[in-house]
Amino acid sequence: MPEAATHVGSGKVRELYELDDERLLLTASDRISTFDVVLPTEIPDKGRVLTGLSAFWFARTRDLVPNHLLGLRPDGRSTECRRLEMLPLECVVRGYLTGSGWKDYQATGAVCGHVLAEGLRDSDKLPEPIFTPATKAQEGHDENIDRDRAAELVGADRLVEVERVAIELYRFASEHAAERWILLADTKFELGLDPDGRLVLADEAFTPDSSRFWPADEYEPGRAQPSFDKQFVRDYCESLGWDKNPPGPELPDHVVAGTRVRYVDAFERLTGIDFDDYLGNPEVVLA
User: Fold this and answer.
1) What is the per-residue pLDDT across 164-184, written as a single tens digit (0 to 9) for each?
2) Which residue in 30, 43, 103, 248 has its CB near the most CB atoms, within 10 A?
3) Does 141 score more than 80 pLDDT?
C-alpha cells in the first residue's frame, strides 16, 4: 500500500484504507465467506474478479445512480473510492424464489412482508422483482426484515428511493445477463449518501459474492440450480453438517478450483472480456 494509505477497517472480504478526507482505497482479498462466516481457505484471483466485475457494472449503471468509484489500481483488486455515509441496510432484490427467501416462504408464505402466491416451488421466477431488505449484522447473520423495520433504519422517504433504485439496477443487470444466457436470481447492494445527501451505489455490484447467477440453459424450477456464484461453496459446507458458526471449515482443492472456475466464467460471460486481458489492463472493464 502507498505510504499515505492508512488501514482503517477490515470486512469479510475487503480491506479499507484511508487516502485522505474524501477518498478511500478498497482492496478485495481472496477470502470467501459463506453464511456470514469467513472460511480459512482462499480462492485464487477471487478479489480481482469482484473488483473487475464491480467496476464493469459501475461504469454501466452510473446513469441510474451515481457510484463511489474514482479509479482502478493496476493490481486489479484495489479501487479508489469516494467516502460516503453508508446506510445501515442490505438492499436485496429477488427475481426468483431461492435461498433464505425460499426458506421464509416455506415457513410463512411471505418474504420480508411480501405475501406470495401459494404453491410456488424452489427457484420459481417471481411475477415481478421484489425488494427484500436485511439488517447489516456486525457479528453473526444478517436478518431479513420487512418495510416497516427498514423504514425505521433509513426513514420512510429514503426507503422509497432506495427500493426504486435497487429494482432499477436489478432490472438493468438481469436484462444484460439474460442476453448472455445467465439468470440473475437475486442480488444485494450497499448504498450510501454523499455530502449533499444524494444516494450513491458503493462496495460492489453484481458479483458472484453479492448475487446468484444461474446458467439459463440449465434452469429447472423445483430444485436447487447450478450456479456461477459461491453457492458451490455453500452446498459443500452444508453437506458437512456444519452449524454455520465460526470457525468455518477448510475447503478441499477440488472445491477451491471449482469455485475459481465459476467466478472467472461469470466474469468472462458477463463482461465479454477475457480474464487474462483484465489482469493485464484492469481499466479495460471501464470502456
Assistant:
1) 999 999 999 999 999 999 999
2) 43
3) no
Give per-residue pLDDT as tens, 26-59: 999 999 999 889 999 999 999 999 999 999 999 9
Residue ranges of alpha helices (H) inside the chain are: 46-61, 99-108, 147-154, 156-178, 231-239, 253-271, 275-280
Question: Cβ distance 121 to 210 under 8 Å?
Answer: no
- Say which residue the cell 460516503 belongs to: 84
Handedness of CA 272, 277, 278, 279 (dihedral sign): positive
Contact call for residues 39 and 251 (beta carbons, < 8 A): yes
Round to whole Å and give the CA distance between 271 and 177.
9
Sole residue written with cell 460492489:
204
DSSP secondary structure letter of residue 124 = P
Please tell me the distance from the alpha carbon of residue 213 to that of residue 263, in angstroms, as a whole number: 10
Q: For the whole prediction, is pTM greater than 0.85?
A: yes
Contacts of 266 (CB under 8 A, 6+ apart): 49, 53, 182, 208, 213, 228, 229
Closest by CA to 32, choosing from 249, 271, 279, 281, is 249
